[in-house]
Amino acid sequence: MSIYLAVFMVVAYFIWIKCFHNRHRRTLLKSLQTVLEVPSLSEINGDGIRALIITAHPDDECMFFAPTILRLVELDAIVHLLCLSEGNYYNQGAQRKQELFNSCAVLGIQHSRITIVDHKNLPDDPKAEWRVSLVSSIIVKHMRAHTFNMVLTFDGRGVSGHANHIAIYKTVSYLASTGQVPNGCVLLSLVTVGLLRKYTSFLELPLSSLLPSCFCCFSGAQGYRQATNAMLCHRSQLLWFRYLYIAFSRYMFTNTFQVIPQGPKNLKIY
Hints:
- With 270 residues, this protein is an alpha/beta fold.
- The chain is 46% helix and 13% strand.
- It contains ten helices and seven strands.
- The protein has a seven-stranded mixed β-sheet with strand order 3-2-1-4-5-7-6, sandwiched between helices.
- Helix 4 runs antiparallel to helix 9 and helix 5 (132-145) crosses helix 6 (163-177).
- The protein is globular, with a radius of gyration of 19 Å.
- The termini are far apart.
- The model has no long low-confidence stretch (mean pLDDT 89).
């Protein structure tokens, strides 16, 4: 009897996942409407969404942001990627740069919308302290060259705790608090979850759907396959624990974001 009950619960759960995924497009549009503060859903179709994903290293885009990128691309949004290093920690910068291009092709980001920064003061190093002034100048220059209405990056814990991830959040928060973000642009930080939630794969989805967040993106089986294929493009990084990450990380299925609050525009700091 207990076996039948277990099978029933598993089947019921997968049916719920399927139904949830099917109605997610509508709820996604509504959350985008709320986050972007636009009066009509028609304003967020196609090029009405101009998103910038800011990452620290090649492979961040698929390890952490794949569900969001896939969902935005599915909506015909204009998606740009700004990667602040080549990932040259093991002197593999050139290879990792090409792997990033290959990964983005799988995720649907156009080659012309990918910017990779190679700066000696922005090394791929968990012990390096990236200066806020340097990172902010790069981000502001990129934002001014385009008209983004949403910027997505890491939160204050950086998902994995990597110092380079956290440095990006500190910089974006600084830009927000000092009023240097263009009008009409919302800033979103990817929520870091605890270890148990992080490695429960799609089983974590109900919890993410119930807990409060400003913006959520979920991927189904097809999205997971795309995210996996994007991860496999980073061949130089495919150590044994990366395969475990692909199999068990909730970030392959789910992204939840919170809004980074912004201060008064053009605030001068003395």
